[in-house]
Amino acid sequence: MRTKSSAVMDKPTKREAEVLDFVRAYRRENGYSPALTEVAKHFNRSIPTVHQHIQSLGKKNLLSVDKGKKRSIITPQDYKSPLVDIPLLGIISAGGPIEAIRNEEMIGVPRSMLPTSSHHYALKVSGVSMIEEGIMDGDIVIVHDQQTVNDGEKAVAYMSERNEVTLKKIYREKDRIKLVPANKTMKPFYETDVVIQGKVVGVLRKEF
Length: 208
Prior knowledge:
Helix content: 10-25%
CATH architecture of the largest domain: Ribbon
Number of domains: 2
Radius of gyration: 21 Å
Shape: elongated
Strand content: 25-35%
Organism: Candidatus Nomurabacteria bacterium GW2011_GWC2_39_41
CATH topology of the largest domain: Umud Fragment, subunit A
GO biological process, one term: DNA repair
Number of strands: 11
GO molecular function: DNA binding; serine-type endopeptidase activity
């Protein structure tokens, strides 16, 4: 049974609350967590002092740190938060196929953009082949992790023969897959060995 004193211990101090608010605001603005040096600079405190605040917040289950990764401060999700943290896995082509660049960070996305509680991830878009679907160069797409999509849906497609990943609309034609850009200046192309890695369910765009 939880005692009154232990419940009080779970509450952050004034400075810890300020650090927590700064981390959340930084993630909302930038899409990834601040480094310890940035937190220290913001509060004009030493890195060891900031590290102590982070450790204390971790013990109170108010945030966590994914050890071994840069910018790894993660704030927990709760029912009051309008944002949900999902992994930003790297860059995907929405032009000519290129190899996806893996550089995992976390990004906060509006909870309303996630239609289910299943696993989602995000990818930054490079290219203009999907502009007629409202996906511009530099946008971030929200992807539901699934292995099948219906014809005409936007999908993350891995082409094993090329060892490349691309973002296209998918159509099945007998023994091959038709990958269709949403840009009238570009032509569709065909692949025989395509693995669906997810369905696009939303788009984030930074206005700066």
